[in-house]
Structures are given as C-alpha cells and as structure tokens.
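Hi R.,

Here's the chain you asked about this morning:
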Amino acid sequence: MKSPLTLSIVTATYNQSKYISQCIKSVISQEGNFYIDYIIINDGSTDDTASVIEKYDVTLKNGQWPVKCMGVEYRFVHRQNGGQASALNDGFRMAHGDIFAWMNSDDYYLPGAFQVVAKVFEEDPELDFIYTDCLKIYANGRPSSIEPRPRPNETFESIRTRGSSFSLNFFTKHILEKTGYLNESLKYCIDLDQWYRIFQVAKVKYVPYTAGAFRWHPLSKTATSQKKFAEERGILAKRYGGNIIPSRKIYKFRGKMKILDVMKQRFPKIYGVLKKIFYKIVDSFKYRNNPSSNL
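And here is the predicted structure, written out as tokens:
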C-alpha cells in the first residue's frame, strides 16, 4: 500500500449540534504522515448542525486551522433526511481515500489515532480491516471505561455466535467495494451486517490501541432503541446462520448466576470445562441459512 495514505472519514449527522463540533475537531486535528479526506453528510438536520459544519469549512479555507498532517480535504453535503445508511453510502461514494471509516457525530477520535492506523496498514498491505479499543463515555457521570473489550481473534464465526466485540474500525476501499456498501434497509444494525460480510472474506487484525470514544447519552439510539436493535440482530442471525438463542440473553443470564463467579475463582478448570460444554450446546442451535450466499 502506497505511502502516505489517505484516510477517508465519513460522518452522517442528524440534529447533533451539541456534539458535532468535538467530532469534527477530532478528525481535522489528527497529526502525522497521511492525508485526511473528511466528508460530512448533514441528513436533514433542523437544529444548528449546518452552521457548525460550515464554520469549520471557512476556518480551514482561511488557513486559520493548524493542519498537522499532509493535508485536509473537508467536504459536506446538506440533504433531506434519508437515514444513516443512505447518508454514509453517499459519503463513501464521494470518498477517494485508501482507508475508510465512519464516525458518528456524537462520538470522536482520540489524538494520535490516525497515525497508528496508517502505520498498521502500511506495515501490512494485505490487511483489509482493523478494529481497536474504544473508550465509552457516559453522560450520567458514570466513569469512562474501555467497553466492550474486543476479542483479539475475532472471526466471522465468533461474531455470528457471540455478537461483535468492537466498536471502532477502519477498512480498505477495496474490501468495501468487494463486499458491497451498507444495507440501507437497516436502521440499527448497519455495522453488524457489514462486519458479517467483511469477516467472511477479509484479512482482519485487532490493534490493542484506544483510537476513539463512544458517547452514551440519553438521546442516543443505543439508549433509546434497544428493542429495535434486538429485532434487527434477530433478522441478521437468520440471514447469516447465527445462533437461535441471542448472545445478549446468554450474557444476561450468565450475569445473574453469581454462583458461577465463585466456581470460576475456586475451581477454574471445572468452570472452563462446563463453559465449553455450555457454549457447544448453545452453538448447536443455529439458523440454517447459508451465510456465503449473502455476499
């Protein structure tokens, strides 16, 4: 893969004027030997989102923003509301970088993230997809944490049986074109559907580095739409041959079984054997759909 790379970041936003400034700054402030191609799709916002987006465009064009990478191309589109997946796809079609990612407008990258990402892809040109740690920020005052903890050896099989273990990721333009753009019929599990397709064919790597932050707040889809997320996860489980028993129900059940915590501490070997038997039984109940037919 040629160097320096261009990272194309797409943000789809709807009425996030409260948070989008931090998101934008986290992208255009990145420092290192790479180019940034930043595309924002304003998906019909009715608050002050448009003016915030345009403010940074003026600041960059006037040379008032201290660019610390090889160069920043900043583009934006104001359009009627058409949904997150459609907005992101519009952004990806506009993008011309080597490495792609999307960042929600209420989340943000941490300093140094792009330099780490660029170096990983430069060192292994055959990589298609990397995922990293993510800091979870709580609006209710709860302490921040690295959550969830990504599995270091995530595979297609582990995702469809246990669910995705990561939030932040970067992928090549090539793998997006190979597996197809985001499924616009989905509203909540857009990312999970994409990872199902990518993990079947991509060379993937976990990078143990905290590249960004996910913000939990009362008005986020994560906070308000868990039932709808569950419904779409069920649809995807049927489509890709996932487990009939949802992984989240298993984890919830496990959390209530405090006696298992005692067994894990006192009899770790027995606990390990029972855990393997339990998951082997659970994994035997899968939908019969052929996942390869979904590419």
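One quick note: Residues 241 and 287 are 5 Å apart (CA to CA).

Cheers,
M.
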